[in-house]
Amino acid sequence: MKILVAAIAISVLCGYTEAFLESIFGGGEDTEWNDLRVGFGINPFSSTTFDTLPRTVADALNAGWALDDKAGNCGTKGSYFNGNRYTKNEDQAAMLLFDKNGYIAGIQAGIPKKAPASTPNYPIPNNKKHHVFNEEPNMWVITAYFVEPATICTTGRSEDDFQKSGTGENLAIQNGTTPESYITIPHDEDQVTKTTKFIAGQCFYGMGMHYWYDVRDTMDCDDIFPVFLLYNKKRLNAFGWAFNPNYDSSYRWEHPQQSAFKHFLPLPFPPCLGKDEPTSTLHIYLQSSPQLNFC
How much is the average pLDDT of 85-113? Predict the structure, then answer.
């Protein structure tokens, strides 16, 4: 509880600081999704808290990211995803997809093929139900797009398009073995429960109002849809991955304990979730001021 209170206090403090700075320097691009950041933490000075990711290939290369073509890229016949994949230090928790012109198009996360002993079959049962993971030789990969997938390797975006739309205009979660199969996420919060099976969880500062897909307290925890949505001021501006096993394959993974779930999930949540060990999550922000995410 003390950690949660500290997190709220730090988020509020950072929010006031950010608001003050924005009043002086402005809030960045005049686009709804004007940034790309990953990682929630209670330490605002940590390199993993609200870490800014590059949104052009040029910036990615300057920051030490490298093209990863092991699973195919634009122009590769038979690739299950659209885009050119870039990674940094071969870290699989945050893998960026750029279009043919070098502008951000999506993000992927890879989880190890060998799951922890407590969840040895993950994510195979989950994938049979939701179809959001694709298999590669050493990992299972989940994919989200920020633009229309069909345009990524065909026309791509121009510099003018990027200046107008920023990180992107739509959030699509791939749910099949080709990029033609995906779930489109509503921008407006009031459309979420009307048009999808996502249901409201809890609001948390520095994150937003959580929505989880068809979560029930009686369900098998390995079946939980591994994507959550975050809305602030009634608009989609963040989302995240949520995997049942406790992965240590990347420094980016967040590891919430079961005691914290009441602050994020619908109540009552499945008691099996986090019972024996923490889960693995990653928050992905599409705007430049996640400290101002007060729901």
Answer: 97
